[in-house]
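Notes on consecutive records. When two proteins share a document, each keeps its own sequence and its own token line. Never mix them. Below: protein one.
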Amino acid sequence: MEKVKEDSIILLQAKGNFELPEDFLLHFHTHIYCHQGSISFLFNDRPYTCNAGEFVFWFAGSKLTNLTFTKKIKASVLLVERDFLLANIPDQSWSIDVVLHSKENPILHLNDKTDRQKVLSNFQLLYDKFSETEHRFYSEVLKLQMQLFILEMWHTFANEYEHRKRTLESGSLFERFMQLIQEHCLKEREVKFYANRLHITAKYLNFVCKQNTGITASDWIQRYARERIILLLQNKNLNISEVADQMNFSSRSFFTRYVRKVLGVSPREYRQRLTGI
């Protein structure tokens, strides 16, 4: 395991006139549990408010503006350095679901007291292990604690995700389409597949999407596929052919052409940019 940076994990207690570190979203994934007051922000140009008893999560690089904490704010804030977290993701498929869900739903509603306590305990355990630099097996133990942290957060996320999934099953045609994309876009990128699942024509599905958002069904599918490609290419344990296989491309050359279309560069060029080589 690579040497852990000194500021890889930061735990803060927000009170009163609180501000996060400058440019925090460039370098850190942000986890906030709100004890009191509220947090308002624009996320992907949409307004949100995180109230007491709720949890908000922003991935590093998220489009976040107009961040405001009320004067009575009390919150626990955990910042985890982006590369350190990505290097210790225990299961890539679940991470993709988390990313796609969190990009649309940055706030988790922790109605269960046990979940709230678990989130706060999870914050403290990770920070404590990070601070225990004299441990004989510091890097190995910290890596395991990071993985445990992620699994515990995914457990909390899964409860909300499943609840939302059940709600959307009885929702509008567009909502059901969006749910299907989250479930299947790793391998399915044709509008016809989703139209068949919804028992409508591809033409009508495009009409529904344009009517609701001004964006075609194929564009929505491509957006979600793009997120999955980025996550898979960030996983250093997978070579490019394995990424292509996971996304059900018939050949690596076809995968390369698709990546050029959605990212503007080849898979190899994208990975070179990540490493700075």
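Protein two starts on the next line and is unrelated to protein one.
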Amino acid sequence: MAGPPPLLLERLRRRVLSPLFDRLGYDLVPANPDWSHRPLSRREVDTLIAGAARSLAHDLAAAGITLPGTVADIVREFWERIPAAPVRQRRGGSGFNGALQVFVVMRALRPRAVIESGVFRGLTTWVIRQACPEAEIRCFDPDLSGLQYRDGAARYSSGDWSEADLSDLDPAATVAFFDDHVAQGRRVVEARARGIGRLLFDDDAAGHRIHAHGGPAHPTIAMIEAVRNAAPAPGGSEPIRWLRNGRAFEQAVDDALLREAGACIARSHAFDDLHRATGYSPARLTYVALDLEAASRQQEEVQRR
């Protein structure tokens, strides 16, 4: 676990640097990850683990995922492993809750191969390796210069995953994890084309909440599902519009990509953010299972036409 900053540096941050950054409209915080702050007494640790386990058990069942063993045992294993994480990050990337969700879901899905699109500093690569020690991991990110953890057995590429040769992987035994700020509808269609039917998405945001997310990768899974399940509106539906940092965004609900992605999805479930159970920063993980047979029939129908 990362130790506290030197006393002199901490005093400098509080008394000089923080007030200066505050006047400029910024917050200056230590780079310690959120899990460096944790309960130590057994009763409180057990309460945190039990609460997280209950929430995750409910989400796994709703997603149609079966976990070998008890959820509480897996959460406790993560609790014991996470202090050794080699990545120090406070802003951006996954915190405790997001890393816990990835760990539990990967342990449950037991993939032989994992596609990770969006690597950032490498925390989730480390988490995936802890959950699936034998898995083949392929990491894709246009900028790998910020890595704090590089997996010795993984393959790294600065290209987009959709352009990579993955012919040596079994799609049925592969899970794709997207945390890359690229349209989630596009990633669904790309995965369907490669026969990969088990997907994880970070930063999935509903239309009424997307303004609070950085780099909105729309259409998001939540948007796709909302449109797919909505009754047709007379005269057409109003686009989803929002404002972030002074910039206006819009997502048409009759968008072709949104409709195509919706036709691929058999099941999706957005996990609880775990904040109530753990007190750590909320996570935004969504599991998506694709209907590959329906997609195949759709392609055959197009070809016949």
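For the record: The first strand starts at residue 113 and ends at 117.
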